[in-house]
Amino acid sequence: MLCIHAFFLWSVRGRIVKGDPDFTVFFTAAQMLREGRGAQLYYPGAQQAVQLEFTNNSDLRRGPLPYIHPPFEALIFLPLTSLPYICAFSLWNVVNLGMLLGIALFLARSLPSLRRVQAWEWLLAFLAFFPIFSNLLQGQDAILLLLLFVLCFGALTRDADFLAGCWLGLGVFKYHFVIPLVVILVLWRGRKLIFGFAVTASAMTLLSLGIVGWQGALQYPAYAWSVVSTSGHGQTPLRLTPNLLGLLTGWSFLDGMNTILRWIVVVASVGLLAIIARMSDMANDRKYFNLCFACAVIMAVLVGYNTNAHDLSLLILPLALVADDCVAATSRSSREKMRLMMPIIPVLISPLWFLLWIRWERTNLMALFLLCWLFAIRREVLRMSANGDSGGPTLQP
């Protein structure tokens, strides 16, 4: 997997130099802040003027690559604007590697059954996972959100619910993943978590307001919705989105049923959220919390509106938790462990990703494997709860 990723990265190095990766939007937004043009952050014309300064050789876009994240996230990339684009891109990926190493150290220290796995082995495994590679290729921010999810999970295992909410509040730059997870955790854990979330999310809102002003803040929701809903402008083709929306609507022969299908997606998303919310009793039992949290993260990825391949980097945490549980559960049969892990195996195979992405343009099919995996984990939790099985050990503080 690593060799495949390295070869592909080398083959598209020219595209990176031209400014084709998604990192362009972060660099553009940060450059606008550096120039004191925060009020114009969501003006397509202003975005294009900045992007033309370092992407004038790109032959893939007819207009600007739009920045649709909340204003406060642009501050993270502000220090990088003192560098040329390609140097900033490279440095951001070095930061991403640093965050991955931090996640590896945390997991290596905290998951009892996997403590013999060295941090560098964790890191190599991460880099062999296609969504992580996609994040590095695009210069995206999914690894940052993964780090916040890991910190949230660690806080929850220490019963530090307020702190867990604070970590999730910092992740509202991808609110379409954070909000479903917050809803589940609040239903599971109660008010302390929502208070922590409200504190940091409110601080990020006020910070954003200070950057773009009231007019820019009021313009943002309509602007973001327009971008992610307009094909060919900013919307990822639905056949390439590995979530419920892509799985149910990403088929050209169903275009005539688009409105009906979108309502079905809404109902299915609410139903999936309700199914995971009903795991509250098991989630509040330390014996089952790890697997329940894995279900919550997978659910958030599936119901997120604008899920891309790199966003599946969030699956690193459920993968680690399920692997730890399988290794620790010596009383569980090999067949039971296989049923728990089999659904996710296709997602781990990079050649399949490349076929679905480049050749067939059908990465929405990955959502099918995620659904199967989610229900396999839930079924195992229900079985353990019914039998009084303790499963694997819980994460240690």
What do you see in this structure?
Helix 9 runs parallel beside helix 11, helix 10 (175-189) packs antiparallel against helix 15 (289-303) and helix 13 (258-277) packs antiparallel against helix 15. This protein has one domain (2-387). The chain has 397 residues and is mainly α. It has helices spanning 2-11, 13-18, 23-34, 44-51, 85-110, 119-127, 130-138, 142-157, 161-170, 175-189, 191-229, 244-249, 258-277, 280-283, 289-303, 316-328, 334-341, 350-359, 366-387. Helices cover 65% and strands 0% of the residues. It has 19 helices and no strands.
Gross morphology: globular
What kind of oligomer do you see? single chain
Order of helices and strands: HHHHHHHHHHHHHHHHHHH
Largest sheet: none
- Number of DSSP strand runs: 0
Strand percentage? under 5%
Give the number of helices: 19
* Helix and strand composition category: mainly alpha
Poorly predicted spans: none
Number of domains: 1
Tell me the helix content: 55-70%
Could you give the distance between the termini?
33 Å
Mean pLDDT: 93
Rg over C-alpha atoms, rounded to the nearest angstrom: 21 Å
